């Protein structure tokens, strides 16, 4: 710091530079005020890391996402998948997205999704929004166009109900829609499947929270006979326990 403090430093700054800073236009993005701190940050959230138990066997499921970037621009990675009762890796997709803040609570995301598991691989272009809606619902809405001319959409939502400061009940749901059936991936046109859960977690620390819950996975419409012919359960309710963590 210059001797004499900020006042002395301001006096040493040329008048032309002071005027340029004072008169420079402020860049508002989606109504957000500009911030002085535009450093690079990173965040990883493992939302689901759980065992799903039922009388016909167990399943393991994970669902996580992470990002790195500034307050305005980020690179976002999402991944989810299930290891079923027969040991097959299914319902898995990975997304790599560019993320741009468009308002105080919402981001626009665009990039690529790949369905990678024991089934046939599919590649999709993706565009959607993610953020915190009115009454603090976490929501995602994404549209996809595949390399085979198919379209799809995914809606995800969750809500944290604070029973205490550390005991939290979280309902969540994911709905998938497709324009065409795809027998190889057990999807049907229209509303194809829903994965939902009600989880009660206890935050031992803010970054580590074991939970128990009940989950539901079901196929609908044209996806039901496809799933049945592939040997999958059309409707499935399971007791669930797992860990939620972030860093």
TrEMBL record:
GO biological process, alphabetically ordered: intracellular copper ion homeostasis
Pfam families: CopB
Gene Ontology molecular-function annotations: copper ion binding
Gene Ontology CC, one term: cell outer membrane
Annotated protein name in UniProt: Copper resistance protein B
Source organism of the structure: Lichenicola cladoniae
């Amino acid at each position: 710091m210059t001797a004499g403090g900020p006042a002395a430093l301001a006096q040493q700054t040329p008048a032309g530079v002071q005027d340029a800073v004072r008169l420079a236009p402020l860049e508002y993005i989606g109504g957000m005020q500009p911030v002085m701190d535009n450093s690079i940050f990173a965040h990883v959230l493992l939302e689901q890391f759980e065992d799903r138990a039922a009388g016909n066997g167990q399943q393991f499921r994970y669902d996580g996402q992470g990002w790195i970037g500034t307050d305005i621009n980020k690179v976002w990675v999402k991944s989810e998948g299930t290891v079923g009762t027969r040991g097959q890796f299914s319902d898995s997709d990975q997304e790599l997205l560019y993320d741009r803040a468009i308002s105080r609570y919402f981001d626009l995301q665009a990039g690529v999704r790949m369905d990678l598991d024991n089934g046939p691989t599919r590649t999709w272009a993706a565009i959607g929004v993610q953020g915190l809606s009115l009454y603090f619902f976490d929501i995602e809405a994404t549209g996809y166009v595949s390399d085979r001319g198919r379209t799809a959409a995914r809606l995800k939502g969750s809500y944290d109900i604070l029973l205490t400061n550390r005991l939290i009940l979280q309902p969540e749901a994911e709905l998938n829609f497709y324009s065409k059936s795809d027998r190889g991936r057990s999807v049907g046109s229209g509303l194809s499947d829903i994965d939902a859960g009600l989880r009660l977690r206890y935050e031992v620390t803010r970054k580590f929270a074991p939970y128990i819950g009940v989950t539901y996975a079901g196929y609908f419409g044209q996806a039901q006979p496809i799933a049945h012919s592939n040997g999958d359960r059309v409707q499935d309710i399971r007791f669930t326990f797992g860990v939620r963590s972030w860093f």
